[in-house]
Amino acid sequence: MAVDLLLGLQWGDEGKGKIVDVLTSKYDIIARFQGGPNAGHTLEFDGIKHVLRTIPSGIFHKDSINIIGNGVVIDPVVFQKEIEGLQKFNIDLKSKLIISRKAHLILPTHRLLDAASETAKGKAKIGSTLKGIGPTYMDKTGRNGIRVGDIELADFKQRYRTLADKHETMIKFYDVAIQYNLAELEKEFFESIEELKKLDFIDSEEYLYNAQKAGKSILCEGAQGSLLDVDFGTYPFVTSSNTTAAGACTGLGIAPNKIQEVFGIFKAYTTRVGSGPFPTEDFGEAGDVMAKVGNEFGSVTGRKRRCGWLDLVALKYAIRINGVTQLMMMKGDVLSGFKTLKVCTAYKYNGQEIDHLPYTIEPENVEPVYTEFKGWNADLTGMTSYGELPKELTEYIEFIEKQVEVPIKIVSVGPDRKQTIMK
């Protein structure tokens, strides 16, 4: 029996979906523990690109059970479209996909609230994806939310109406111009609820306890990245859930002492979507090349990602708060062709040089200190073993390992599941 975690160590978009897909054959159960449809996991194999928003990334493996845990927030409309997109692949979703009754539902009015709130902020907006994630988690912590299990209750529609009416009052309070037809949105919502009811709802903490007792292996899958954690991320430019390892315990009901390996995923460089501080962001040609070669556009939002050099100060921070035991480096192939690479190894902060993440990393407080490396000019995408990699890349990898004191076990050299080198 093993319970392992897999999570991102930067600001999201690290490539978690691909690695879950690669590792799934070793696990009986893949369980998503937090986040909502604002986070897309991209998988590529057999010449086809797949984007999953809510469904765990093990869904394409015939022998794995996929669980949507209680820490996830589900938009039934988005979820139905995701299911429809999978139908052509003849996946038996009824037997492979199960949902925690304690997972919260995103209502149409949550999305409207999100839009009203972000519009009201003007230039101070935080870069919300406008999927209703924040307002749904606010209702969860405010003890107002509606959960998947409520769908099974006789007064579900009454519960919905009470909360939706409350939301409409709040939308008026923001006093901003947003256009919507709630009746139309609600029709689509309730049709999607009927589709959701075709799947099995479970008490996931009990299910996973029994699975562990039966010797099943479990991989817990996170969404977003550690630097977007509501407690330990670059607040307030964060998501609304715990994206770190602790979120797997609260988002699935798994005891901390049952967790064994913690797989941490990071890019060979750094990206960020939306607003918020980003010390190593490159505003010149290097950042543009990373964005173009790395196809750095959000899989759900389509937004262009901001790009910059690898930040080891932030990476070490994420490794420590998650207790990472193994690292996976993604997109090494994107850096091919650079004559010189830069890695941030410290910050200048309030007149001092520090190697830890301070309370604020806004540009007026932090200046990155870089170490430079010789680049490489080789096509990595067809390489299949660590020994084939250019010497400059292996030196880059070994430097990172020494700095963060955790081994890099996987090096990804392309988007396809086959373009994965085990070290």
Account of the 3D structure:
The protein is an alpha/beta fold and 423 residues long. It has 12 helices and 20 strands. The protein has helices spanning 16-23, 76-86, 93-96, 108-121, 133-141, 156-174, 182-196, 204-213, 246-252, 285-293, 312-322, 391-404; strands spanning 2-8, 29-32, 41-45, 48-52, 65-68, 73-74, 97-100, 104-105, 200-202, 217-225, 259-267, 270-272, 306-308, 310-311, 326-330, 340-349, 352-354, 366-374, 408-412, 420-422. The strands form 5 sheets. A 10-stranded mixed beta sheet has the order 9-7-5-2-10-1-11-15-19-20, with helices on both faces. Strands 14, 16, 17 and 18 form a 4-stranded mixed beta sheet that branches. Helix 4 crosses helix 5 (133-141) and helix 4 runs parallel beside helix 6 (156-174). The chain is globular, with a radius of gyration of 21 Å. The mean pLDDT is 92.
